What does this fold into?
Amino acid sequence: MKKEGLLGDFLQFAIEKLDDAQVYIAEKEGEIIGFLCTTLPNPKHLYIEYIGVNPELQGKGIASKIISAFRGVPPRRLR
It folds into this structure.
């Protein structure tokens, strides 16, 4: 999985900035095409802190697909 370029730099920034972050990666052919970074400040609230999509792929519905996929993650995986 490559973490090069602008998206990789921003992903690294998000991981370093948020100590308790959960990061979900979207890949295509071994390359990161997007990510979702969340925090769980308490058991009843989950925040999407950052969402990023490769600039070359923006406008193609990738962020919407990432959010839709994330909604299917069972709550137990978020703790």
User: Anything to note?
Assistant: The chain has a mean pLDDT of 77.
